[in-house]
Amino acid sequence: MTAEELQSLISAGLACEHIRVDGDGRHWEAVIVSPEFEGKRLIQRHQRVYATLGARMHTDEVHALSMKTLTPAEWASQPH
Question: How many Cβ atoms sit within 10 Å of the Cβ of residue 60?
Fold first, then answer.
């Protein structure tokens, strides 16, 4: 899987205002900004992203995914 494919899978299942995925094909890091994260705890945000990947998380297609999940307001308040 490529970073672009992983990014497309996430953005197809989650409304993203910003998404960046980097990694080596097995270990991934993602910054995901979505209004769907409003009012959700960190674990709920991560579960929402995992839901977009479905079985890929269980079949080792995506071995490890480290995420920074932010609302649009949180993203706007950070330097980037």
Answer: 9
User: In order of start, what are the domains of the chain with their CATH numbers?
Assistant: 13-63 (3.30.300.90)
CA distances from 46 to 42, 60, 79, 80 (A): 6, 17, 22, 21
pTM score > 0.85 for this model? yes
Task: Give pLDDT tens digits for 59-69.
Answer: 877 888 999 99
Residue 18 pairs with which residues in a beta bridge? Answer: 33
Helix then strand then coil, % of the chain, to nearest 5: 45, 25, 30
Are residues 31 and 19 in contact, defined by beta-carbon separation less than 8 angstroms?
yes
